[in-house]
Amino acid sequence: MDTSRDSATDTGWRALAGHPVRLLASSWPWRSVAYLLTGWIGATVWVMSALGLILVPALGLAVLFTGIPLGALERWRLRLVSPHPVPSPHVRPARPGPLGWVGARIHETATWRELGYAMLFSLGLAWLDAAVGLLAGCVLFLVAFPALVHLVPAYQPEAIFGIVAARLPDAFLATAIGVLILPVVAYLITAYAAGRSVLTRVLLGRPDGEDPAMVELTRSRARIMDAMDAQRRRIERDLHDGAQQRLTGLIMTLGMARLELADAPPAGRGLVDAAYQQARTALAELRDLVHGIHPQVLTDRGLEPAVAELAERCPVPVDVDLDLPHRPAEPVEAAAWFIVSEALTNVARHSDARHARVTARRRGHLLVLEIHDDGRGGADPGGGTGLVGLADRVSVLGGRIALTSPAGGPTVLRVELPCG
């Protein structure tokens, strides 16, 4: 049997909508029969396997995963009636080994859909499929009835339909009946198989076109982003509690040395004064660096005070209007602060704006953040202004970002972050 794609039609539905002769001459009716008549094999194996596992107390829970191999078999069998493969909806386990596999599968919706399909299919659908598929056998029996009577003289069945006797030439009436109903049965079987393939694809495929590889990629990006945020906070604490404190101590020591060396030669006092000023400059730069990594005010007091502090430090006057009854989750809060920080940096460096405004509102399960400026506009995400990085950070959280920046301004950056 040829299971390759027909040149004229590439799905059963298109074959049904085409010319009747083309359908009868194609492989679709026979592929449909093969699809319907092979399902009971997998159904029988599943029922026997499930009953065997249930009867063994130590293996009873394993029955929860028996739908997975049957689902894989059903997706493979769909190739008989569909040229478009159905990829597995399962994702790769995050942890290796059997326990990692069990943990990943038991939390997947696909596992439970496959178990439900296995029960529905093995206890009902498979046998209905076989009954419909056997209609083709009945038609073939009618067509071949004269040959059967001639080749097996001892075969003397009752008269078919009460009118076709088991003797020649009367038996050719069965052939005529079979040829007449063959197109009807071919259409019926092909339509039923096409509908069954749609049901199987919906139940065992990826919901809403969801790609497990993309889901896993998104999750891995979120894990990487969380790890990076944790690493930044650790660096901020180390710098604040370590290097910053030591620099403060060094400045105090140099200040005391300046007092002690008041009567020293000018060259010596000059070197100490220069070291004192360099240490103060280094401390100021370190504090700016620590603040840019993860400000302590964000951790202690939340997004509103942290954004207000960013506005105070921005050389462009910024109005802040944040109305957040509750603090968002920590990743969302950190992302929102990072977006405002980067956006205000762009305003100060590239926009020539005289005024800017930051607003934030909670709209249902979304945190809606907007940054406006009255600059010259024309912001280009590909121009190295960090907008691509902002988009990546927003996408990790499943949010959306939109930039409106016509030439001549104004520029509006709108970000929606899920925080339900």
Automatic annotation (TrEMBL):
Positions of the Signal transduction histidine kinase subgroup 3 dimerisation and phosphoacceptor domain: 232-298
Pfam families: HATPase_c (PF02518), HisKA_3 (PF07730), Sensor (PF13796)
GO molecular function: kinase activity
Domain Putative sensor: start-end pairs: 35-204
Keywords of the record: ATP-binding, Kinase, Membrane, Nucleotide-binding, Phosphoprotein, Transferase, Transmembrane, Transmembrane helix, Two-component regulatory system
EC numbers for this chain: 2.7.13.3
Signal sequence segment: none
Domain Histidine kinase/HSP90-like ATPase: 339-418
Keyword hit for Protease: no
Keyword Repressor appears in the UniProt entry: no
Catalytic reaction list: ATP + protein L-histidine = ADP + protein N-phospho-L-histidine
Transmembrane feature ranges: 54-73, 125-151, 171-194
PANTHER family reported in the protein's UniProt record: NITRATE/NITRITE SENSOR PROTEIN NARX-RELATED, NITRATE_NITRITE SENSOR PROTEIN NARQ
Protein name (database record): histidine kinase
Source organism of the structure: Sphaerisporangium aureirubrum
Lineage: Bacteria, Bacillati, Actinomycetota, Actinomycetes, Streptosporangiales
